[in-house]
Amino acid sequence: MSYSSNRRDFLKSALVGGFTVWIGGRAYSQGNKSPNDRIDFACIGVGGKGDSDSSDAASHGNVIAICDVDSNTLDRAAKKWPDAKKYSDYRKMYDELGHKINGVTVSIPDHSHYAATALALHRKIACYTQKPLAHSIYEVRKLSELARKNNVATQMGNQGTADNGLRKNAYAVKAGALGKVSEVHVWTDRPIWPQGIDRGQPLDVPSNLAWDLWLGPAKTRPYSVNYHDFKWRGWWDFGTGALGDMGCHNINQAFMALDLRDPTSVQAETSTHNSDSYPKSSHVTYEFPANKERGPVTLHWYDGGRKPSLDHFAGPDFADLLESGQPATNGWLIIGDKGKLYSTGSGGHIIGGVDLGDVKYPVSPGHWEEFVAAIKGGDQAMSNFPNYAGGLAETVLLGNLAVWPAEGGTGPLIKWDARRMKATGGPDMSHIIKPQYRAGYHLD
Q1: For residue 98, what are the CA distances in angstroms to 87, 119, 121, 217?
Q2: Is the link from the previous residue into 229 a cis peptide, with omega within 30 of 0?
Q3: Within 13 Å of residue 58, how many CA atoms lie on the same side as its CB?
Q4: DSSP string over 53-101
Q5: For residue 411, what pLDDT is reported?
Q6: Most buried among 81, 93, 352, 403, using CB within 10 Å?
Q7: Separation in Å, CA 383 to CA 56, 160, 255, 319, 370
Q8: Residue 127 exposure: Cα atoms within 13 Å on the Cβ side
């Protein structure tokens, strides 16, 4: 299913010079907050990225509930927000305080994103959920549908979407500054956690950790230091690997510029992996068909230290941009027939004598400012689930369908039917597209 038409409707804002007038305000979250009301937030996951997300929530409203499966982490957060009620189980939090909560942050391991977010959307609570939105394509699609059905304010935690430098360059590419774009290369230094490893010896669960709640909807397995608290990203049952961690950031500008959703095929070449832990490195190739605004595009993703060939950076204009003759550790290259865009961050550079010109683009007041405005009755944030974040997350997670059968070498070409969410050309991957939840957690 494609959300392109909805995205185009969303972007029909009034473009005036280099800024946007946001129009067509609507109330999305429960409580119908007025612009002057304080928002009551609940924060699920308050350590690591959850610490900064909950701090952002506190700077834009009141934190009335905090939830974490690690009692040490929860106690540290309680010192910041002593009036917030403490929980270890977000299901109990919703049951007790759901009628009071206006917005929720979900900053927990990927495998629990859907369950925590869907419960809020069913209650018409505004959701700020970390990238890559969910653990599987099916879950992402369901969250997008729920947000649209219940008319809820949503935003994914990919902050670069609100960066005006990224937007300006994306809209310049969209307007034809690079000419006809046919190729995109995106790379990252992730993983920076162990991958391609064995589980290790089972250990006693630390007294501060509610292990059963940490496992959430995933299959039961013994505790190991290889999972909690940061290493979960490298395991198929819990994380989404390097792609899930950085894809929604590094692919974002090309996605915005070229509407890179619903690819028709994907293929991967990887280092060895055991179908339990992700490989140490991979190169994934996506093929996107032509649409009404551009021709066909090939997207290459690299991780684990892999990067595009230096042949793609040929030309004197790159000399001052490459680090010691090499691309930066994270970046992207968009190649058109009139020029190239190379970026190591949100600003980027136009290469090959191409002038950006006075491009019009929707200026953002700020990442969290967009989300808060939507809760209070304004337009949806650009990275809302149905019109933007869902499509980006589906594209990112589709890469892992190619990684799964590529167990050390080049895997099969996976054909993808986006409407039916069906993959062909490889082994059965239905469990990756749509997971099975254990008792106590509900997918449908």
Answers
A1: 13, 9, 11, 21
A2: yes
A3: 19
A4: HHHHHHHHEEEEEEE-SBHHHHHHHHHH-TTSEEES-HHHHHHHHTTT-
A5: 97
A6: 403
A7: 17, 10, 12, 34, 9
A8: 33
Instruction: Classify the phi-psi angles of 438: left when phi > 0, otherwise alpha if psi is within -120 to 50, otherwise beta.
Output: beta
* Cα–Cα distance, 383 to 368 (Å, whole number): 11
**3-class DSSP state for residue 386?**
helix
**Pick from 328, 343, 384: nearest CA to 173:** 343
| Residue labelled with tokens 């933007």 | 388
Contact call for residues 192 and 233 (beta carbons, < 8 A) = no
- Can you list the pairs that 323-328 forms with residues at least 24 positions away whose Cβ atoms lie under 8 Å? 327/187
Q: How confident is the prediction for the chain on average, in pLDDT?
A: 90
Of 395, 423, 414, nearest in space to 141 by CA: 395
Closest to 147 in 3D by CA, of 380, 424, 434: 380
Q: What is the pLDDT of residue 346?
A: 61
Alpha helices (runs of H) in 105-151, residue ranges in sequence order: 113-122, 137-150
Contacts of 216 (CB under 8 A, 6+ apart): 109, 111, 112, 115, 441
Query: What are the tokens at 334?
Result: 């968009």
- In this prediction, residue 33 has a pLDDT band, given cuts at 50, 70 and 90, of low
DSSP state at residue 191: -
Give the gyration radius of the chain's Cα atoms.
21
The pTM for the full model equals 0.92
Distance separating alpha carbons of residues 254 and 315, to the nearest angstrom: 22
Integer CA distances (angstroms), 259 to 240, 262, 294, 383, 392, in order? 22, 9, 9, 13, 9
Q: Return the minimum-mean-pLDDT range out of 118-132, 279-293, 301-315.
A: 301-315
Question: Count of alpha carbons within 13 Å of 196, Cβ hemisphere only?
Answer: 16
* Closest by Cα among 56, 68, 41 to 126: 41
How many CB atoms neighbour CB 371 within 10 A? Answer: 30
Q: Is the pLDDT of residue 152 over 60?
A: yes
